[in-house]
Every structure is written in structure tokens, then in C-alpha cells.
Amino acid sequence: MINHRYYTSHMTRTIRSNRKHFAAALSFIFFSIFIPGLPAEEPVRIGASLSFSGVYREPSHMIMKGYQLWEKNINERGGLLGRPVELIILDDQSDVNKLRDNYRSLLDEEDVDLVLAPYSSPLTLAASEITEEAGFIMVTSGAASSVIWQRGYKYILSVYAQADRFFIGYLDLIARNGIRKVAIFFEDNSFNQAAAAGAREWADKMGVEVTAYTGYAPGEKHPAQIIEDADPTPEEAVIVCSYPDEGYKFLAAIRKRKIQPASIAMTITPTHPLFALRVGPLAQGVFAPSQWEPMERIPYPGTRDFIEEFRTFAHMDPSYHASLAYASCQVLEFAVTETGTLDNSMLRDYIFSMDTVTIIGRFKVNQKGEQVGHNPILIQWQNGKKEIVYPSNMKTSDPVFE
């Protein structure tokens, strides 16, 4: 008698295996024909889930371009371990359930060798539950909430400086310029909660009074009403911790008021290279913490080449999301090259021991996997362009307080 459950499972595995080998055969032909000198080996398959739509789409687009540029470059250099790299990116639509399905599919059906991270702390929290259980290393390129590294996980590491340090430079600057009050608004999600909590902590250390500390869930209350209720004065600075969709709403609401705050700083939204093009004059004077900027004052090895290549590849300047995505791939590349293996456990041990430099600067993690070698900088939009205003040894312009 045929065991139908076994038969069905066996046939499913066979079909998947055949599909994989057929795809691999096509890859052999492509790489043999189009990349002279590259051996016709089975590709190293690397999977990721990103948000092609929804609230995380803008930074995700940059991350995808960073991943794809690295894929192009590594294959031009001969691939990993002499094998071509095949990048598989699935769309999660900014939805956590879709994201979970994507990573299960990458591991169980696509049979990937390595994984790359999604964008956002909430999605990274969910993805890492799956990759941790499967024993797959994940070098995060789009998450900074400290809660990710408080779970005792062994396979997740970060290239990001942590969210609770994002506003140190901004609070230092406003205190030095006589602004002693700040109102803090934040979305109720892991990243923005961490950024806001860090801002409140550092404000207290620097003698800046927090006049409002307001969290909210997008859709429950409009940013215009939140700003109206807080009623910031010309003596107060405003910090907004949000993802871009809500960030644009907050900025419009603030700028519509007759009475303007002393200064405005925001997470993520102003770091996008097309920010000023989208909001026009509203961009003037807005501050933002950034992990990296495509400027000459950031002279790490390969940085200038990356900027030029990204402009050619994507037809725009890279944001820090693109550069950190590329840097996370560099970390994996270094580890695979030095260890000569795709074994995730061995790669994990090696990456934990690394103290190196990527295109964004120093990479070093602590025993939890948190990034401790890299610190955020502070940018400000001045006359239609981004300027680095903090720290002093990297600044391209002095900060402006109007």
C-alpha cells in the first residue's frame, strides 16, 4: 500500500529539487556566457524580504538597490568561493505576516545558503525569530531597536548604531545654542519608541527639559492634532520619531502653524536624497540623525567608489539605508572569504570576532550582536542640500538655527 502522505511529501521535495537544479543550470549557462572566467558552479543563493509597498517602501527601495549593487560587484569580482551569487528578494508589502511567509519560503522552498535582513525594526524582530530557529546568520541593515538584541539570540548582528543614540548630537547642539526645551513625538513601534526613549534620556543628561513625550499609533490620531495639543513654542525644539509616511505629515502640520518651534529634528524622513524635492521649502533647517552620508568627508575605504557606482546604478544619490545594506553584504563577504565556508555557525563565530572597516566605517559588535564600532552623525537641510553638522571633525557646514 502506498503511503500517500510520504509519497506526496517525497514528490513535493523532488519537484522543488528539480526546479532548483533547473534554475541552477540556467544560472550556469548565464554566468558562463556573460561573465568570462567565472566557473560554471552552482550559485550561492542569498535571500531577503523587502517592502515594495506600504509604510516601509521608501527605505526598502534604497536597501534593495544596495543589495543589488553588491550582487553586481561581487559577481564581477568572481563571486563567492568561486561561485556566482544569486540574490532572491521577495516582497512583504510592509506586512509582518507576509514577511514571515517569505522567510519560511526562502529557507524551505528556495533553499538559500544565506539570508539578508528586511527593513524596519518590527519586521526584523519577526524575521529573526525564523532565522534564529533555523540557525541562519542575519546581519541587519535596516533595524536599530535595542529590543532586538535583548532576547539572547545568537545569530543576529547589526551594522546600525543603536536607536537610543540617534539624537545625542542634536541635543548637544541645541543645548549649546541656548535651546533648553524639547517636545518629543513618536510612533508606537519598537524602533521609534527606542529612539524617543534615548532622546528623553540624553535630554535629561544635557539639561534639556522634555515638555511633551507623546506616543501614538498611526491612524488613531492625525499628527496635526498631536502638534496642536502640544502647542510647541518658539523656545522649544521638536523631535519626531516616525517612519516616512507619518514624518511627512508631521512636518506639514508643524510648518502650517503660525508659531514655529525653535528647531525640528526627525528620524529617517529627511535622510532620503529626494526629501527636499518632495517637500520643497519645508525642508529648510530640518535636522536628522544619519548613519552615513555620500560626502567627501566620509573617507572610508571604497566609499567614493560606492557613491559613484550607486549613482550610475540607481540614478540617484544613496541614502544611508543603501550604504548600510551594502556594508552588511561586505561583512558577509569578508566572513565567507576568510573562513572559506557557507556554514552559518562558523560565519557567526567569525563575524562576532571581527573588527574591520566597511564603506560606512568601523564594524564591531558586542557579545549581544549590537553595533559598537559605528556612531550616527547629524545632518541638516540647508538651501536645498544636506550638510553634516555634527560631529565637528566631519561637518561640512555649521548648524543653522533661525
What value does the average pLDDT take? 90
Q: Output the CATH class name of the largest domain.
A: Alpha Beta
What is the count of distinct domains?
Answer: 2
The count of helical stretches stands at 12
Strand content: 15-25%
Overall number of strands: 14
Unreliable stretches (pLDDT < 50, length at least 5) are 1-39
Spatial strand arrangement across the major sheet = 7-6-8-9
What layout of secondary structure does this protein have?
Blueprint (H helix, E strand, L loop, with lengths): L3 H31 L9 E7 L6 H20 L8 E7 L4 H13 L5 E2 L5 H14 L3 E3 L15 E3 L9 H9 L4 E7 L2 H16 L3 E8 L6 H8 L5 E6 L2 H13 L6 E4 L8 H5 L7 E4 L12 H12 L5 H20 L4 H10 L2 E3 L2 E3 L13 E6 L2 E6 L12
Parallel strand pairs: 1-2, 1-3, 4-5, 6-7, 6-8, 8-9
Antiparallel strand pairs: 10-13, 11-12, 13-14
Task: Report what the structure shows.
It is a single chain. This protein is of the alpha/beta class and 402 residues long. The termini are far apart. The model is unreliable at 1-39 (pLDDT under 50). The longest helix is centred in the first third of the chain and has 31 residues, at 4-34. The protein has helices at 4-34, 57-76, 96-108, 121-134, 168-176, 190-205, 223-230, 244-256, 275-279, 303-314, 320-339, 344-353, and strands at residues 44-50, 85-91, 114-115, 138-140, 156-158, 181-187, 209-216, 236-241, 263-266, 287-290, 356-358, 361-363, 377-382, 385-390. Helices cover 43% and strands 17% of the residues. The chain folds into two domains: 38-162 and 300-363, Response regulator (Rossmann fold), CATH 3.40.50.2300; 164-291 and 377-390, 3-Layer(aba) Sandwich (Rossmann fold).
